[in-house]
Amino acid sequence: KSGEGRAKAERMFGLMDGFLKNDPVSLQKDILDHVEYTVARSRFNFDDFEAYQALSHSVRDRLIERWHDTQQYFKRKDPKRLYFLSLEFLMGRSLSNSVINLGIRDQCADALNQLGFEFEVVAEQEGDAALGNGGLARLSACQMDSLATLDFPAIGYGLRYQYGLFRQVILDGFQHEQPDYWLNFGNPWEIERVHVSYAVKFYGTVEEEFLNGEKCKVWVPGEMVEAVAYDNPIPGYGTRNTINLRLWAAKPSGQYDMESYNTGDYINEVINRQRAETISTVLYPDDRSYQGKELRLKQQYFFVSASLQDIIRRFKEAHNNFDDFPEKVALQLNDTHPSLAIAEVMRVLVDEERLGWNRAWDIVCTIFSFTTHTVLPEGLEKIPVDLLGSLLPRHLQIIYEINSIFMDELKKRIGLDYNRLSRMSIVEEGAIKNIRMANLSLVCCHTVNGVSRVHSELLKTRVFKDFYELWPQKFQYKTNGVTQRRWIVVSNPSLCALISKWLGTEAWIRDADLLTGLREYAADAILQQEWKMVRKVNKMRLAEYIEAMSGVKVSADAMFDVQIKRIHEYKRQLLNLLGIIHRYDCIKNMEKSNRRKVVPRVCIIGGKAAPGYEIAKKIIKLCHAVAEKINNDSDVGDLLKLVFFPDYNVSVAELVIPGSDLSQHISTAGHEASGTGSMKLLMNGCLLLATADGSTVEIIEEIGEDNMFLFGAKLHEVSALRDKGPATKVPLQFARVVRMVREGYFGFKDYFKSLCDTLEGGGDFYLLGNDFGSYLEAQAAADKAFVDEEKWTQMSILCTASSGRFSSDRTIEEYAEKTWGIEPCKCPF
Ligand code: H53
């Protein structure tokens, strides 16, 4: 464009103010219009849910406006874009988050008020979008918020499951799973794009053909499924930028085989075609054991293929030479779930674009980066060769070819060290041959990121040691972070207001490092008073919820002690429960007069167990059995209560976190890759009781050991302790509490036997016995600190003040600079 033309276009973008006005009167009119014309209710008669629908549609209109402008702007500027591929996004609710990021929260509340509705009540009508399992999935959601807020040109790609993570229902203390058919009331936060759809191929054979005298491979598929895009606008905070999360849904393909329509079996033919939709039906609820299921592999390829067709189409709109591809495209693999993308890009470039193997390979090696979220070799995904060969025959060939070239090069580098060669091979030999998706990713990506410093060290020295020695330059880490927009501004508005008041600015909402400004007031009596008030009100709200949910009355003066996360043996909810049993036992056995000295506690545990994870389900049952006993014991009264929060999800977290005094992050050292719950709690001024694992190690550096309760074996001690066999230091109290469970003090003796067996008789892989003594000491220290209100409040303020480093904004900035090589592209206001 000429200089003048560009200036004109700039002016146009500068004028790009919204059509839709954000004052309460305009908003109210829009809400009423949506009540009438979208929800089809009378504006004289609609309820809270309908108000939610109408308000959401009004907000969605505003999102769409910004979304269009942002896409338009990106298209014009054509920056290098980040494509974030993840099979899971745990978004939770959207309304409150959207109105806050758009800066129209108060106007919406006013508009509703005049119509006789309350914003909080209306927002409560929304269900969670739970298209993910746990930490990994919520991390993706936090990172999307940061990408938008920091104006990065990014697009998220994933799957639009019809059934999100199962609902956990507790019956008689046992977990039952119920399907989460979350779309039955419509979803105002997505936009169906019937015209953005791609055919995805499966099965079939690979044939050789001669084209222009050149031999080439052609994949003749046996099945085609259509992928249809659903766009979910993600607004940034304090910016016009609104990026896209594009989720794919499976539909029967339009391109079917005409032959089969002449067989006369019309009904069966239609039913078969309809089966295509199953691909995006349901989220796999187990987050780290991969069982080589065909449907799971289909999901992976389906979302990868559709996303890449979309990415390549977008690239080709503006470019005609694939050598420019790496300058415009960064592909981020969130764990190995999308790693088939590597083989898919090779296939497209070699078989369809005919670039030749070497040119295609050079491109592939510069566009992919990979983040791993696990510590354990068992957590790494493997795909049986037979399965891959039948579903994606051409991809298997490509992976074999990549491996063969890699193995040849490796032999030249390291010689004939067959053990090491077989460890590093992408193909795992054995009774069942497997493709190791992590090895594929390590070979083909330019960078592999860990999610905390300790995690990265473990990757280098254990999990991927062989690869680290070969390519040390590929290894980086970006300590995880969470978004303060969701975890303070949305979920804890009164703390948010207090922070802004004392800092004299709201700038920390975009720059969390500014929270350190609170440090200088940590000892200020007035701030402490206000801080305590805010926390007390949050605790009262939580107490009300507990009573409504479980019938258990709790006092907001007690210490609220929470452990909220997926149930896993390594996360040691069982250690927490044994500690609670010990506390109960002590109260029962102490002189009545001494009970006055006990610091009252409300212990809260929440989390889901994977449906097939027996031990985890027993831990949930034990929690209920112990709660039943304690909560009904008049000797104990208010001194100790135990509640299990059923169906823990993002919106439950938003309620629990602001009202927590103490939170537990007590995994056996060396097992939690990072952990992100701790960061959300820290931001909200909750003190941590924790082991030195994952990101906690870095949290300690920020807040100091004095401001938390640290315990347990250190990483370097763990393997020696295991080698030594049954812990020699197991305290007597440990044996006693395990015996209480074993002998049926809480009932269900036979059922809990196998749970107790994991702890005794040479087992105890997770070292509960070893850590029990120091765990009790840390708990005692927490009790002691809680009594000194002034000190506790000061520590609480310091936690929030030190949490800035754990904002996902920092994580994303590091990725942008060190891994993706992308720059902000800010849509003018
Ligand atoms: O990912 C989180 C980490 C956390 C880790 C978690 C995770 C999953 O949620 C699922 C599978 C997996 O391998 C790892 O356990 O430590 O904080 C985000 O990185």
UniProtKB/TrEMBL annotation:
Please report which protein family the annotation says this sequence is part of: Belongs to the glycogen phosphorylase family.
**A single MF term (Gene Ontology):** pyridoxal phosphate binding
Job description of the protein: Allosteric enzyme that catalyzes the rate-limiting step in glycogen catabolism, the phosphorolytic cleavage of glycogen to produce glucose-1-phosphate, and plays a central role in maintaining cellular and organismal glucose homeostasis.
What reaction does this catalyse? [(1->4)-alpha-D-glucosyl](n) + phosphate = [(1->4)-alpha-D-glucosyl](n-1) + alpha-D-glucose 1-phosphate
Q: Which residues form a coiled coil?
A: none
Q: Cellular component terms, GO, for this chain's entry?
A: cytoplasm
Q: Please identify the protein, giving its name as recorded.
A: Alpha-1,4 glucan phosphorylase
GO biological process terms held by the UniProt record: glycogen catabolic process
Under which main EC class is this enzyme filed?
transferase
Highest taxon above the source species: Eukaryota
Has keyword Glycosyltransferase? Answer: yes
Is Transferase among this UniProt entry's keywords?
A: yes
Name its species.
Tetracentron sinense
The EC code for this enzyme is 2.4.1.1
**Cofactors (names):** pyridoxal 5'-phosphate
